[in-house]
Q: What sequence folds into this?
């Protein structure tokens, strides 16, 4: 490599990075266009809001997964952690009858604590993230069932609880636009996560860890601490997802959760975040999550059986990653 | 006179920015052990990689038994009977010895792998080598020496008539070396030609018939091994005159000691190393590959654990157990492998410069002060003349020299006053090299204590105010700045006596 050669390649990858997001975005637009043409019901406000509402839980989980994946790790426990946090909220609000804010904070704190444990296992005990979070996934699944005695916990005694996801603050001000709170929370979490990733030291270390962990360590950075912080942050976000899903179902369903982590990871991957770490955006993940729910919704409207929706989602994941590989090869 | 088994004539090979070989020559007779010597980067390995089909030559002829041949792939080299045993062994640790030897050519019966035949074939090869080795043991459980034997057996299984060995004894103790040499002598008797790449003078004398010396990618000469004095070979290896600036050694004897290391130890790699470096001094570390210089640097920096030893910074003992401790004490380490250990290649220049000092740019709520980082980054880009379109350019897109400057800027921003440079110019253009040299001199002039580890003798000589020479984990001596290359080479090949060697525990089996 020569000194003069470097500037020539200047803007290449930036364009390509944007290109991938553009690809995902145009994929989303294309899906919307196709479904709108195929069915007049698709673009109804009601349906659009339903799609957004359906995206909220998976979107929030995918954001949590994005943080961990950018560090070069993986978090398989996001789904069951979500359920665990919902169960904790149920314990606090229904079993103990505590006020709503306590339940909300408690659920998120439970998520942070579990994330902290995963982070310590990964960073300090050096257990590979896949294994550590696989273990955590099962532990939390079991704990949720144990704590709830395998029965759903209903939030009938806490009237405001369903409002968390299904109420609409926007709708109460602009009745024409009844955007559910769950959607607002999704976008709020997304904005916050994007802010942390791009503007704070935590975010910078998140990328740096995935980019070259050893270089970060040799720069004198306390790598373990930051890594634990990322897992904890992801855990907290899972807590939010737990509140969303519990609010929507007006119950904590302890048997739910497993399988959600794969949808979340699918959204992350479709959104262009590299499983190898070091690269990724929250915007991409949001688009990825939207693609999955638009697909599910649109195919349902077209009366395509559920089984086939799963097949199509799988194909889309492979296509998205293949597009990413093509992009890399062209660098 | 027998015809040559191999003849390589006027071989040229260039890599981007580097001319690795220029009109290189080599010849090998059947039943001969021919040593290939030269400093690091002289082109030995490149030449042999061309012979074994790993690289394609740019120009020149390769003749086998007097016939011109094309060797386009390692596979083709194997078919022609050329086997190479790389410095880093390429074995699959979880497979058995026999499975390793016949990988990709397993004997089959009715389409099913014939494990019995496989093991019998391997046993036959071992028998021909007079080697007691069980074909069914897993490679993982073998000593490095035994693994080397497996590599040799693998090469022989292709009916190799030419066997290339690249630094085969780097990881072996004396007993294991004797074992290896016995095998080489048996192969020799059967007419196999052996190319033996090594730095170790005593081994060359013991095992080889002739020595070809290379320097800067060129052929220097071929001499008989037995009756050529070591001094002659060394002077052929280093024979160039130093170009460029003459070294000015400032008097730093009155300057305070910045870093002192006492009795540093770790296993076989670092054995009782003690040294001190003063403010404003450049201490060079010379030695051959595997001498333990990088290991010392990483142990001092806390990147690897150490068994024992004391580290004093500005006279104060410091407990360094992680790179963070070292950085907090003002020590910066610039790794020889920038891509793996120095740069976060996905991040931009600005963030790489700020990487070690990010907490200084962190405000309320952990928000980063991008403007402050930009200001500092732009300042260093100007000060160190880093060639980059902007401070938001991804670091991996810079050239090697500029990447190195980015890492230097990182440590300067962190206010490190002890800087350890491990191969500061590896993979860097000649032009950029002298710029890095100037920078190091300027840093020393500002009172930084600098350690330079380099495998290139001219580089050590051009930079160092004092030179520490290592061989096999030991510090074999200090030389004043401007010492002769011969002096360094003598200390760098000063192997400890066989008695001392045997007291070291053998590698576990």
A:
């Amino acid at each position: 490599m020569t000194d003069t050669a470097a500037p020539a390649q200047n803007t290449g990858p930036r364009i390509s990075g944007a290109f991938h997001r553009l690809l995902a975005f145009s994929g989303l637009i294309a899906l919307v266009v196709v479904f709108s043409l195929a069915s007049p019901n698709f673009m109804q406000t009601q349906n659009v809001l339903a799609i957004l509402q359906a995206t909220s839980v998976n979107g929030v989980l995918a954001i949590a997964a994005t943080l961990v994946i950018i560090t070069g790790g993986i978090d398989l426990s996001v789904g069951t952690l979500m359920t665990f946090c919902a169960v904790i909220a149920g314990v606090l609000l229904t079993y103990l009858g505590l006020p709503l804010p306590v339940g909300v904070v408690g659920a998120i704190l439970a998520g942070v604590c579990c994330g902290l444990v995963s982070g310590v296992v990964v960073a300090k005990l050096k257990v590979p993230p896949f294994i550590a979070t696989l273990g955590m996934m099962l532990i939390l699944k079991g704990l949720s069932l144990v704590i709830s005695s395998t029965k759903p916990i209903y939030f009938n005694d806490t009237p405001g609880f369903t409002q968390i996801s299904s109420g609409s603050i926007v709708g109460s001000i602009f009745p024409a636009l009844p955007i559910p709170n769950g959607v607002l929370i999704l976008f709020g979490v997304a904005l916050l996560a994007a802010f942390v990733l791009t503007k704070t030291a935590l975010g910078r270390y998140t990328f740096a860890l995935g980019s070259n962990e050893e270089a970060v360590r040799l720069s004198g950075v306390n790598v373990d601490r930051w890594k634990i912080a990322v897992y904890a942050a992801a855990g907290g976000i899972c807590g939010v997802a737990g509140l969303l899903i519990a609010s929507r179902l007006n119950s904590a369903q302890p048997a739910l959760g497993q399988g959600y982590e794969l949808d979340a990871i699918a959204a992350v991957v479709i959104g262009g975040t590299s499983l190898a770490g070091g690269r990724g955006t929250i915007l991409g993940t949001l688009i990825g999550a939207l693609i999955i729910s638009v697909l599910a919704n649109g195919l349902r409207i077209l009366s395509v059986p559920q089984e086939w929706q799963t097949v199509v989602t799988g194909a889309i994941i492979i296509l998205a990653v293949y597009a990413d590989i093509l992009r890399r090869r062209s660098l | 006179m027998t015809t040559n088994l191999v003849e390589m004539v006027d071989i040229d090979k260039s890599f981007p920015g580097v001319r690795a070989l220029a009109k290189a020559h080599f010849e090998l007779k059947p039943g001969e052990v021919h040593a290939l010597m030269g400093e690091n980067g002289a082109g030995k390995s490149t030449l042999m990689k061309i012979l074994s089909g790993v690289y394609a030559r740019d120009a020149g002829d390769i003749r086998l038994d007097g016939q011109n041949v094309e060797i386009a792939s390692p596979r083709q080299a194997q078919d022609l009977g050329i086997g190479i045993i790389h410095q880093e062994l390429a074995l699959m640790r979880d497979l058995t010895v026999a499975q390793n030897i016949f990988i990709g050519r397993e004997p089959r019966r009715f389409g099913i792998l014939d494990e019995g035949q496989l093991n019998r074939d391997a046993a036959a090869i071992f028998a021909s080598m007079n080697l007691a080795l069980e074909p069914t043991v897993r490679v993982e459980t073998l000593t490095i020496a035994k693994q080397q034997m497996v590599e040799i057996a693998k090469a022989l299984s292709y009916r190799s008539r030419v066997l290339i060995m690249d630094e085969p004894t780097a990881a072996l103790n004396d007993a294991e070396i004797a074992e290896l040499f016995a095998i080489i002598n048996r192969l020799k008797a059967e007419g196999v030609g052996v190319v033996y790449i090594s730095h170790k003078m005593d081994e060359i004398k013991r095992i080889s018939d002739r020595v070809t010396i290379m320097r800067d990618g060129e052929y220097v000469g071929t001499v008989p091994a037995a009756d050529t004095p070591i001094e002659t070979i060394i002077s052929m290896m280093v024979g160039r005159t130093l170009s460029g600036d003459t070294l000015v050694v400032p008097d730093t004897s009155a300057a305070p000691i910045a870093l002192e290391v006492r009795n540093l130890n770790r296993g076989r790699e670092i054995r009782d190393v003690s040294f001190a470096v003063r403010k404003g001094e450049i201490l060079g570390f010379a030695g051959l590959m595997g001498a333990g210089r990088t290991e010392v640097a990483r142990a001092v920096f806390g990147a690897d654990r150490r068994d024992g030893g004391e580290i004093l910074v500005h006279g104060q003992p410091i407990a360094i157990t992680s790179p963070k401790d070292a950085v907090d004490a003002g020590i910066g380490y610039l790794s020889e492998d920038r891509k793996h250990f120095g740069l976060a290649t996905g991040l931009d220049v600005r963030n790489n410069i700020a990487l070690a000092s990010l907490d200084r740019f962190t405000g309320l709520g952990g928000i980063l002060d991008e403007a402050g980082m930009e200001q500092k980054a732009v300042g260093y880009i100007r000060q160190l003349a880093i060639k980059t379109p902007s401070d938001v350019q991804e670091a991996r897109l810079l050239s090697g020299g500029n990447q190195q400057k980015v890492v230097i800027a990182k440590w300067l921003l962190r206010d490190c006053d002890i800087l350890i440079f491990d191969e500061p110019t590896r993979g860097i253009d000649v032009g950029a090299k002298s710029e890095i040299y100037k920078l190091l001199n300027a840093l020393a002039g500002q009172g930084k204590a600098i350690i330079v580890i380099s495998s290139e003798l001219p580089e050590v000589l051009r930079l160092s105010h004092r030179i520490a020479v290592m061989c096999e984990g030991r510090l074999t001596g200090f030389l004043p700045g401007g010492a002769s290359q011969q002096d360094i080479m003598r200390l760098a090949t000063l192997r400890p006596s066989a008695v001392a060697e045997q007291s070291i525990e053998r590698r576990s089996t």
